[in-house]
Automatic annotation (TrEMBL):
Gene Ontology cellular component list: cytoplasm
Protein name: Cu(I)-responsive transcriptional regulator
Family annotation (CDD domains): HTH_CueR (cd01108)
Organism, scientific name: Manganibacter manganicus
GO molecular function, one term: copper ion binding
InterPro entries, A to Z: CueR (IPR011789), DNA-bd_dom_put_sf (IPR009061), MerR-type_HTH_dom (IPR000551), MerR_fam (IPR047057), Tscrpt_reg_MerR_DNA-bd (IPR015358)
Matches recorded under SMART domains: HTH_MERR (SM00422)
Cellular compartments annotated: Cytoplasm
SUPFAM superfamilies xref list: Putative DNA-binding domain
Domain HTH merR-type: 1-68
């Protein structure tokens, strides 16, 4: 099947399918006319990659997971290590997002939100304010 058909069956844009080929994640055969010829197995690999990417795995992680998927002598501990590292990265990102939310909530609370031009939110972004944890809250 051609790239368009493989893209439709995998639910990926054709551009993504070509990119995965370009970086070596999939290797479709070439027909006599030089066009890519995707097999059902290639579509299965594309679906695998799509699912892994939806779970947030990086391209490098996907490359490792794909290699492990193809290796029937793999140790499941290798797969688990990649997944565990990914969960740790997600947890760190959640902590960063929670910290960002807390900072923004403090800034929003400190902002009068009226017709006055002074704005602690903009001052913080410009680097002109003190640490929000030590800065007194503006009243009124």
């Amino acid at each position: 099947m051609n790239v368009g058909a493989a893209a439709r069956r995998s639910g990926l844009p054709a551009k993504t399918v070509r990119y995965y080929e370009e970086i070596g994640l999939i290797r479709p055969d070439r027909a006599e006319n030089g066009y890519r010829a995707y097999s059902n197995e290639d579509v299965h690999r594309l679906l695998f990659l799509a699912r892994a990417r939806k779970l947030g795995f990086s391209i490098d992680d996907c490359r490792q997971l794909m290699a492990l998927y193809r290796d029937h002598t793999r140790a499941s501990q290798d797969v688990r290590a990649i997944a565990s590292a990914h969960v740790a990265a997600i947890e760190e990102k959640v902590r960063e997002l929670q910290s960002m939310r807390a900072t923004l909530q403090k800034l929003i609370h400190a902002c009068h939100g009226d017709e006055r031009p002074d704005c602690p939110i903009l001052e913080e972004m410009a680097g002109n304010s003190e640490d929000m944890d030590t800065k007194p809250t503006l009243d009124g």
